[in-house]
Protein backbone atom coordinates (compact mmCIF):
# COMPACT_ATOMS: atom_id res chain seq x y z
CA UNK A 1 0.00 0.00 0.00
CA UNK A 2 1.51 3.32 -1.02
CA UNK A 3 1.31 6.22 1.39
CA UNK A 4 -0.18 9.49 0.24
CA UNK A 5 -0.65 12.75 2.12
CA UNK A 6 -4.44 12.28 1.96
CA UNK A 7 -5.60 9.33 3.99
CA UNK A 8 -8.04 10.17 6.75
CA UNK A 9 -8.23 13.88 6.04
CA UNK A 10 -9.09 14.56 2.47
CA UNK A 11 -9.52 11.27 0.72
CA UNK A 12 -12.49 9.01 0.58
CA UNK A 13 -12.17 5.94 2.74
CA UNK A 14 -10.85 3.39 2.76
CA UNK A 15 -7.66 5.35 2.03
CA UNK A 16 -9.72 7.74 0.01
CA UNK A 17 -11.71 10.20 2.04
CA UNK A 18 -12.39 11.54 5.47
CA UNK A 19 -12.43 14.91 7.14
CA UNK A 20 -11.57 16.19 10.56
CA UNK A 21 -15.14 16.65 11.68
CA UNK A 22 -15.22 15.39 15.22
CA UNK A 23 -13.39 16.33 18.37
CA UNK A 24 -10.10 14.72 19.26
CA UNK A 25 -10.15 12.06 21.91
CA UNK A 26 -7.34 10.73 24.08
CA UNK A 27 -3.99 10.10 22.38
CA UNK A 28 -2.87 6.62 21.35
CA UNK A 29 0.44 6.36 23.22
CA UNK A 30 1.45 6.32 26.88
CA UNK A 31 4.68 6.65 28.84
CA UNK A 32 5.01 2.87 28.92
CA UNK A 33 5.28 2.72 25.12
CA UNK A 34 8.55 3.13 23.22
CA UNK A 35 6.85 5.77 21.06
CA UNK A 36 7.83 9.32 22.08
CA UNK A 37 4.82 11.65 22.28
CA UNK A 38 5.83 14.94 20.63
CA UNK A 39 4.22 18.38 20.92
CA UNK A 40 5.16 22.03 20.28
CA UNK A 41 6.87 22.23 23.68
CA UNK A 42 9.36 19.40 23.14
CA UNK A 43 9.60 19.02 19.35
CA UNK A 44 12.47 21.46 18.88
CA UNK A 45 14.51 19.94 21.72
CA UNK A 46 13.80 16.28 20.99
CA UNK A 47 13.82 16.27 17.19
CA UNK A 48 15.29 19.38 15.59
CA UNK A 49 18.32 19.57 17.89
CA UNK A 50 18.93 15.82 17.74
CA UNK A 51 21.60 13.99 15.79
CA UNK A 52 19.38 10.89 15.69
CA UNK A 53 17.22 9.74 12.82
CA UNK A 54 13.55 10.21 13.72
CA UNK A 55 10.51 8.43 12.33
CA UNK A 56 7.43 10.46 13.21
CA UNK A 57 3.74 9.70 12.74
CA UNK A 58 1.33 12.64 12.53
CA UNK A 59 -2.07 11.28 13.55
CA UNK A 60 -5.59 12.25 14.63
CA UNK A 61 -7.38 10.26 17.35
CA UNK A 62 -10.64 10.14 15.35
CA UNK A 63 -8.92 8.69 12.26
CA UNK A 64 -9.73 5.03 11.65
CA UNK A 65 -6.54 4.45 9.66
CA UNK A 66 -4.49 5.90 12.53
CA UNK A 67 -6.23 3.60 14.99
CA UNK A 68 -5.36 0.63 12.77
CA UNK A 69 -1.70 1.73 12.61
CA UNK A 70 -1.24 2.07 16.40
CA UNK A 71 -0.22 -1.53 17.16
CA UNK A 72 2.28 -1.62 14.26
CA UNK A 73 3.69 1.76 15.27
CA UNK A 74 4.32 0.56 18.85
CA UNK A 75 5.92 -2.63 17.50
CA UNK A 76 8.11 -0.53 15.19
CA UNK A 77 9.26 1.67 18.08
CA UNK A 78 10.20 -1.36 20.16
CA UNK A 79 12.09 -2.98 17.29
CA UNK A 80 14.06 0.20 16.57
CA UNK A 81 14.72 1.14 20.20
CA UNK A 82 18.27 2.48 20.56
CA UNK A 83 18.69 2.58 16.77
CA UNK A 84 16.09 5.01 15.38
CA UNK A 85 13.85 7.33 17.38
CA UNK A 86 10.14 6.76 16.82
CA UNK A 87 7.69 9.52 17.72
CA UNK A 88 4.08 10.56 17.27
CA UNK A 89 2.31 13.90 17.07
CA UNK A 90 -1.41 14.33 17.74
CA UNK A 91 -1.78 16.73 14.82
CA UNK A 92 -5.47 17.22 15.51
CA UNK A 93 -4.58 18.75 18.88
CA UNK A 94 -1.32 20.34 17.72
CA UNK A 95 -2.40 21.66 14.32
CA UNK A 96 0.52 24.10 14.18
CA UNK A 97 3.05 21.27 14.10
CA UNK A 98 1.18 19.47 11.38
CA UNK A 99 0.81 22.68 9.40
CA UNK A 100 4.50 23.46 9.78
CA UNK A 101 5.39 20.27 7.93
CA UNK A 102 2.57 20.34 5.39
CA UNK A 103 0.53 17.55 6.95
CA UNK A 104 -2.88 17.41 5.27
CA UNK A 105 -3.97 13.83 5.88
CA UNK A 106 -3.73 11.19 8.59
CA UNK A 107 -1.71 9.25 9.28
CA UNK A 108 1.27 10.96 7.67
CA UNK A 109 4.70 9.47 8.40
CA UNK A 110 7.83 11.58 7.95
CA UNK A 111 11.52 10.71 8.29
CA UNK A 112 13.65 13.40 9.94
CA UNK A 113 17.22 12.66 8.87
CA UNK A 114 20.33 14.76 8.30
CA UNK A 115 18.40 17.92 7.48
CA UNK A 116 15.68 18.05 10.10
CA UNK A 117 14.16 21.07 8.38
CA UNK A 118 13.27 19.06 5.28
CA UNK A 119 11.93 15.68 6.37
CA UNK A 120 11.18 13.01 3.78
CA UNK A 121 7.76 11.42 3.38
CA UNK A 122 7.64 7.72 4.15
CA UNK A 123 6.16 6.08 1.06
CA UNK A 124 6.03 2.43 2.05
CA UNK A 125 3.40 0.05 3.37
CA UNK A 126 1.91 0.49 6.84
CA UNK A 127 3.04 -2.82 8.39
CA UNK A 128 5.65 -2.81 11.15
CA UNK A 129 8.07 -4.84 9.00
CA UNK A 130 7.81 -2.44 6.06
CA UNK A 131 8.21 0.61 8.31
CA UNK A 132 11.27 -0.88 10.04
CA UNK A 133 12.80 -1.66 6.63
CA UNK A 134 12.15 1.91 5.50
CA UNK A 135 13.75 3.34 8.65
CA UNK A 136 16.85 1.15 8.29
CA UNK A 137 17.22 2.16 4.64
CA UNK A 138 17.06 5.82 5.68
CA UNK A 139 19.61 5.13 8.41
CA UNK A 140 22.00 3.50 5.93
CA UNK A 141 21.70 6.55 3.67
CA UNK A 142 22.44 8.85 6.61
CA UNK A 143 25.55 6.86 7.57
CA UNK A 144 26.70 6.82 3.92
CA UNK A 145 26.38 10.60 3.74
CA UNK A 146 28.45 11.01 6.88
CA UNK A 147 31.11 8.64 5.58
CA UNK A 148 31.38 10.71 2.41
CA UNK A 149 31.88 13.87 4.41
CA UNK A 150 28.42 15.33 4.15
CA UNK A 151 27.35 16.57 7.55
CA UNK A 152 24.55 14.63 9.19
CA UNK A 153 24.74 16.40 12.54
CA UNK A 154 22.40 19.02 13.83
CA UNK A 155 23.07 22.71 13.29
CA UNK A 156 21.10 24.48 15.94
CA UNK A 157 21.45 27.94 14.44
CA UNK A 158 20.24 26.66 11.10
CA UNK A 159 17.38 24.78 12.72
CA UNK A 160 16.01 27.72 14.60
CA UNK A 161 16.46 30.22 11.82
CA UNK A 162 15.77 28.21 8.69
CA UNK A 163 14.02 25.25 7.28
CA UNK A 164 10.60 25.58 7.80
CA UNK A 165 12.42 28.73 8.96
CA UNK A 166 10.72 31.01 6.50
CA UNK A 167 11.86 34.20 4.86
CA UNK A 168 12.49 37.49 6.62
CA UNK A 169 10.66 39.27 3.80
CA UNK A 170 7.43 37.71 5.10
CA UNK A 171 7.75 39.76 8.29
CA UNK A 172 6.43 43.21 7.41
CA UNK A 173 8.63 46.03 8.68
CA UNK A 174 6.29 48.56 10.26
CA UNK A 175 7.13 52.20 10.91
CA UNK A 176 5.53 55.44 12.08
CA UNK A 177 4.89 56.23 8.40
CA UNK A 178 3.20 53.01 7.23
CA UNK A 179 1.59 51.55 10.36
CA UNK A 180 -1.81 53.21 10.09
CA UNK A 181 -2.12 52.45 6.38
CA UNK A 182 -0.98 48.83 6.51
CA UNK A 183 -2.36 47.71 9.86
CA UNK A 184 -5.22 49.96 10.96
CA UNK A 185 -6.51 50.39 7.41
CA UNK A 186 -6.53 46.67 6.68
CA UNK A 187 -9.44 44.24 6.76
CA UNK A 188 -6.97 41.48 7.66
CA UNK A 189 -5.64 40.37 11.05
CA UNK A 190 -2.19 41.51 12.16
CA UNK A 191 0.16 40.15 14.80
CA UNK A 192 2.71 42.87 15.54
CA UNK A 193 5.91 42.42 17.52
CA UNK A 194 7.38 45.51 19.19
CA UNK A 195 11.09 44.83 19.73
CA UNK A 196 14.40 46.42 20.64
CA UNK A 197 17.57 45.37 18.78
CA UNK A 198 19.55 45.02 22.03
CA UNK A 199 16.95 42.76 23.67
CA UNK A 200 18.08 39.15 24.11
CA UNK A 201 14.52 37.79 24.24
CA UNK A 202 13.79 39.60 20.97
CA UNK A 203 16.82 37.97 19.34
CA UNK A 204 15.59 34.57 20.48
CA UNK A 205 12.13 35.30 19.10
CA UNK A 206 13.34 36.50 15.68
CA UNK A 207 13.81 33.10 13.97
CA UNK A 208 10.53 31.83 15.43
CA UNK A 209 8.69 34.97 14.27
CA UNK A 210 10.23 34.67 10.80
CA UNK A 211 9.34 30.99 10.42
CA UNK A 212 5.80 31.62 11.64
CA UNK A 213 5.35 34.55 9.25
CA UNK A 214 6.08 32.41 6.19
CA UNK A 215 3.88 29.55 7.35
CA UNK A 216 0.99 31.84 8.28
CA UNK A 217 1.19 33.70 4.98
CA UNK A 218 0.82 30.44 3.07
CA UNK A 219 -1.79 28.76 5.26
CA UNK A 220 -4.10 31.77 5.55
CA UNK A 221 -3.67 32.81 1.91
CA UNK A 222 -2.08 36.06 3.08
CA UNK A 223 -5.06 37.02 5.27
CA UNK A 224 -3.10 37.09 8.55
CA UNK A 225 0.11 39.10 8.65
CA UNK A 226 3.07 39.20 11.00
CA UNK A 227 4.80 42.54 11.40
CA UNK A 228 7.59 44.01 13.50
CA UNK A 229 8.20 47.48 14.91
CA UNK A 230 11.62 48.62 16.12
CA UNK A 231 10.32 50.42 19.18
CA UNK A 232 13.64 52.16 19.82
CA UNK A 233 13.33 53.93 16.46
CA UNK A 234 9.55 54.37 16.22
CA UNK A 235 8.94 55.53 19.74
CA UNK A 236 5.69 57.23 18.79
CA UNK A 237 4.11 53.87 17.96
CA UNK A 238 5.50 52.27 21.09
CA UNK A 239 4.11 55.08 23.21
CA UNK A 240 0.70 54.97 21.52
CA UNK A 241 0.26 51.32 22.44
CA UNK A 242 1.81 51.50 25.89
CA UNK A 243 4.82 49.31 25.16
CA UNK A 244 6.92 48.96 28.31
CA UNK A 245 8.82 45.73 27.73
CA UNK A 246 10.33 43.76 24.88
CA UNK A 247 9.28 41.86 22.97
CA UNK A 248 5.60 42.79 23.21
CA UNK A 249 3.19 41.22 20.72
CA UNK A 250 -0.21 42.75 20.00
CA UNK A 251 -3.11 41.53 17.88
CA UNK A 252 -4.89 44.02 15.61
CA UNK A 253 -8.32 43.30 14.12
CA UNK A 254 -10.25 45.80 12.05
CA UNK A 255 -12.49 48.06 14.11
CA UNK A 256 -11.36 46.63 17.46
CA UNK A 257 -8.96 47.74 20.15
CA UNK A 258 -5.65 45.87 19.97
CA UNK A 259 -5.25 43.02 22.42
CA UNK A 260 -2.17 41.49 23.98
CA UNK A 261 -0.93 38.20 22.57
CA UNK A 262 -1.01 35.66 25.39
CA UNK A 263 0.41 32.58 23.65
CA UNK A 264 3.80 30.90 23.61
CA UNK A 265 6.83 32.20 21.77
CA UNK A 266 7.68 29.21 19.58
CA UNK A 267 6.83 29.21 15.90
CA UNK A 268 4.29 26.46 16.53
CA UNK A 269 2.53 28.53 19.19
CA UNK A 270 2.47 31.60 16.97
CA UNK A 271 1.18 29.68 13.95
CA UNK A 272 -1.56 28.07 16.05
CA UNK A 273 -2.73 31.46 17.33
CA UNK A 274 -2.67 32.93 13.82
CA UNK A 275 -4.73 30.05 12.42
CA UNK A 276 -7.29 30.46 15.20
CA UNK A 277 -7.55 34.16 14.41
CA UNK A 278 -7.91 33.36 10.72
CA UNK A 279 -10.76 30.94 11.43
CA UNK A 280 -12.55 33.36 13.74
CA UNK A 281 -12.40 36.12 11.16
CA UNK A 282 -13.05 34.00 8.07
CA UNK A 283 -15.95 35.37 6.03
CA UNK A 284 -19.25 33.48 5.99
CA UNK A 285 -19.00 30.56 3.57
CA UNK A 286 -20.59 30.80 0.16
CA UNK A 287 -22.93 28.19 -1.28
CA UNK A 288 -22.46 28.13 -5.04
CA UNK A 289 -25.10 27.19 -7.59
CA UNK A 290 -23.65 25.09 -10.41
CA UNK A 291 -24.29 27.37 -13.36
CA UNK A 292 -21.54 26.28 -15.75
CA UNK A 293 -18.42 24.16 -16.15
CA UNK A 294 -16.14 26.63 -14.38
CA UNK A 295 -18.18 26.76 -11.19
CA UNK A 296 -17.84 23.01 -10.68
CA UNK A 297 -14.34 22.31 -11.91
CA UNK A 298 -12.53 25.35 -10.53
CA UNK A 299 -14.06 25.09 -7.09
CA UNK A 300 -13.73 21.32 -6.78
CA UNK A 301 -10.13 21.37 -7.95
CA UNK A 302 -9.24 24.14 -5.49
CA UNK A 303 -10.70 22.50 -2.39
CA UNK A 304 -9.99 19.12 -0.83
CA UNK A 305 -13.64 18.27 -0.49
CA UNK A 306 -16.55 19.14 -2.76
CA UNK A 307 -20.02 18.75 -1.23
CA UNK A 308 -22.77 18.80 -3.88
CA UNK A 309 -26.50 18.89 -3.22
CA UNK A 310 -29.14 18.16 -5.84
CA UNK A 311 -32.26 19.95 -4.63
CA UNK A 312 -35.84 19.24 -5.75
CA UNK A 313 -37.29 21.17 -8.67
CA UNK A 314 -38.59 24.60 -7.66
CA UNK A 315 -42.14 23.54 -8.58
CA UNK A 316 -41.93 20.79 -5.98
CA UNK A 317 -40.77 22.94 -3.06
CA UNK A 318 -41.35 26.59 -3.87
CA UNK A 319 -38.91 29.28 -2.76
CA UNK A 320 -39.53 28.63 0.95
CA UNK A 321 -38.69 24.94 0.68
CA UNK A 322 -35.56 25.53 -1.37
CA UNK A 323 -34.35 28.23 1.01
CA UNK A 324 -34.84 25.78 3.85
CA UNK A 325 -32.47 23.29 2.22
CA UNK A 326 -29.95 26.03 1.44
CA UNK A 327 -30.11 27.20 5.05
CA UNK A 328 -29.20 23.71 6.25
CA UNK A 329 -26.22 23.70 3.89
CA UNK A 330 -25.17 27.17 5.03
CA UNK A 331 -25.26 26.15 8.69
CA UNK A 332 -23.14 23.10 8.01
CA UNK A 333 -20.65 25.07 5.91
CA UNK A 334 -20.40 27.67 8.70
CA UNK A 335 -20.01 24.93 11.31
CA UNK A 336 -17.03 23.43 9.57
CA UNK A 337 -15.36 26.53 8.12
CA UNK A 338 -12.80 26.38 10.96
CA UNK A 339 -11.74 22.88 10.00
CA UNK A 340 -8.51 23.04 8.10
CA UNK A 341 -9.34 20.26 5.66
CA UNK A 342 -11.07 22.74 3.35
CA UNK A 343 -14.38 22.26 1.56
CA UNK A 344 -16.70 23.95 -0.89
CA UNK A 345 -20.48 23.55 -0.96
CA UNK A 346 -22.40 23.50 -4.26
CA UNK A 347 -25.98 22.86 -5.35
CA UNK A 348 -28.01 22.35 -8.48
CA UNK A 349 -31.67 21.77 -9.28
CA UNK A 350 -32.88 18.25 -10.04
CA UNK A 351 -32.82 17.69 -13.79
CA UNK A 352 -30.57 20.66 -14.56
CA UNK A 353 -27.34 18.63 -14.66
CA UNK A 354 -28.33 15.13 -15.66
CA UNK A 355 -24.78 14.05 -16.57
CA UNK A 356 -23.61 15.06 -13.11
CA UNK A 357 -26.46 13.17 -11.44
CA UNK A 358 -25.70 10.08 -13.51
CA UNK A 359 -21.98 10.19 -12.68
CA UNK A 360 -22.83 10.26 -8.95
CA UNK A 361 -25.66 7.76 -9.05
CA UNK A 362 -28.14 10.40 -7.87
CA UNK A 363 -31.78 10.41 -8.84
CA UNK A 364 -32.79 6.89 -8.03
CA UNK A 365 -33.74 7.52 -4.42
CA UNK A 366 -35.34 10.96 -4.53
CA UNK A 367 -34.42 14.52 -3.79
CA UNK A 368 -32.80 16.28 -2.06
CA UNK A 369 -29.63 14.26 -2.55
CA UNK A 370 -26.05 14.96 -1.57
CA UNK A 371 -22.62 13.67 -2.58
CA UNK A 372 -19.16 14.42 -1.19
CA UNK A 373 -16.43 14.30 -3.83
CA UNK A 374 -12.66 14.11 -3.67
CA UNK A 375 -11.93 15.56 -7.11
CA UNK A 376 -8.26 14.65 -6.90
CA UNK A 377 -9.05 10.97 -6.58
CA UNK A 378 -12.38 11.07 -8.43
CA UNK A 379 -14.09 9.25 -5.58
CA UNK A 380 -17.44 10.11 -4.03
CA UNK A 381 -19.81 9.07 -1.28
CA UNK A 382 -23.58 9.56 -1.12
CA UNK A 383 -25.66 10.84 1.77
CA UNK A 384 -27.98 7.99 2.76
CA UNK A 385 -29.54 9.64 5.81
CA UNK A 386 -31.73 12.68 6.17
CA UNK A 387 -30.94 15.99 4.49
CA UNK A 388 -30.62 17.78 7.84
CA UNK A 389 -27.87 19.17 10.06
CA UNK A 390 -27.80 15.91 12.00
CA UNK A 391 -27.93 13.72 8.90
CA UNK A 392 -25.18 15.61 7.06
CA UNK A 393 -22.96 15.70 10.16
CA UNK A 394 -23.29 11.93 10.62
CA UNK A 395 -22.60 11.41 6.92
CA UNK A 396 -19.32 13.35 7.01
CA UNK A 397 -18.36 11.97 10.40
CA UNK A 398 -18.75 8.38 9.19
CA UNK A 399 -16.54 9.14 6.21
CA UNK A 400 -13.89 10.61 8.51
CA UNK A 401 -13.56 7.38 10.48
CA UNK A 402 -13.66 5.07 7.49
CA UNK A 403 -17.24 3.86 7.75
CA UNK A 404 -18.63 5.48 4.62
CA UNK A 405 -18.99 3.52 1.40
CA UNK A 406 -17.42 5.13 -1.67
CA UNK A 407 -17.35 4.74 -5.43
CA UNK A 408 -15.54 6.11 -8.44
CA UNK A 409 -17.10 9.08 -10.22
CA UNK A 410 -18.73 7.82 -13.40
CA UNK A 411 -16.29 7.97 -16.27
CA UNK A 412 -13.43 8.73 -13.88
CA UNK A 413 -13.75 12.48 -14.47
CA UNK A 414 -16.08 15.34 -13.69
CA UNK A 415 -18.90 15.26 -16.24
CA UNK A 416 -20.01 17.81 -18.79
CA UNK A 417 -21.92 20.66 -17.16
CA UNK A 418 -24.72 22.59 -18.83
CA UNK A 419 -24.83 26.37 -18.64
CA UNK A 420 -28.03 27.40 -16.86
CA UNK A 421 -29.57 30.60 -15.60
CA UNK A 422 -29.20 31.26 -11.86
CA UNK A 423 -32.23 30.83 -9.65
CA UNK A 424 -33.99 34.17 -9.19
CA UNK A 425 -35.06 33.40 -5.65
CA UNK A 426 -38.75 33.21 -6.58
CA UNK A 427 -41.36 30.47 -6.66
CA UNK A 428 -41.53 28.52 -9.87
CA UNK A 429 -44.26 29.05 -12.45
CA UNK A 430 -45.99 26.34 -14.40
CA UNK A 431 -45.43 26.62 -18.14
CA UNK A 432 -48.30 28.34 -19.93
CA UNK A 433 -50.17 25.95 -22.20
CA UNK A 434 -51.10 27.32 -25.62
CA UNK A 435 -54.85 27.36 -26.36
CA UNK A 436 -55.96 26.00 -29.70
CA UNK A 437 -59.16 27.16 -31.47
CA UNK A 438 -60.70 24.14 -33.18
CA UNK A 439 -63.82 25.92 -34.48
CA UNK A 440 -62.47 26.29 -38.00
CA UNK A 441 -61.42 22.67 -38.32
CA UNK A 442 -64.02 20.52 -40.14
CA UNK A 443 -64.02 17.15 -38.47
CA UNK A 444 -67.43 15.93 -39.62
CA UNK A 445 -67.21 15.63 -43.39
CA UNK A 446 -65.55 12.28 -43.59
CA UNK A 447 -65.78 11.15 -40.02
CA UNK A 448 -67.48 7.82 -39.64
CA UNK A 449 -67.67 7.10 -43.40
CA UNK A 450 -66.45 3.72 -44.48
CA UNK A 451 -64.16 3.57 -47.40
CA UNK A 452 -64.93 0.68 -49.68
Automatic annotation (TrEMBL):
Thioredoxin domain boundaries: 27-140, 141-280
Major localization class: endoplasmic reticulum
GO terms of molecular function: protein disulfide isomerase activity; protein-disulfide reductase activity
EC number: 5.3.4.1
Keyword Disulfide bond attached: yes
Protein role: May function as a chaperone that inhibits aggregation of misfolded proteins. Negatively regulates the unfolded protein response (UPR) through binding to UPR sensors such as ERN1, which in turn inactivates ERN1 signaling. May also regulate the UPR via the EIF2AK3 UPR sensor. Plays a role in platelet aggregation and activation by agonists such as convulxin, collagen and thrombin.
Protein name, UniProt field: Protein disulfide-isomerase A6
Species of the source: Esox lucius (Northern pike)
Amino acid sequence: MTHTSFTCSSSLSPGVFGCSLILACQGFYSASDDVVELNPSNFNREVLQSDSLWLIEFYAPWCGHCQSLTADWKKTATALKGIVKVGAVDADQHKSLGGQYGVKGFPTIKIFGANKNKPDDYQGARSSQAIVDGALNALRSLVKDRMSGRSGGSDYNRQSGGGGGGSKKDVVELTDDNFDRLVLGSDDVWLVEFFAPWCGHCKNLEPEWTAAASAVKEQTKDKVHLGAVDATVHQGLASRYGIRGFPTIKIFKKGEEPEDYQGGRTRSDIIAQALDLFSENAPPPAIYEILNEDVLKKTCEEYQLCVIAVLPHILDTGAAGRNGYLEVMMKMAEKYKKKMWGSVWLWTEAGAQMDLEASLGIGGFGYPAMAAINARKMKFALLKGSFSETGIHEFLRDLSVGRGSTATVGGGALPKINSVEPWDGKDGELPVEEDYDLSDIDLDDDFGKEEL
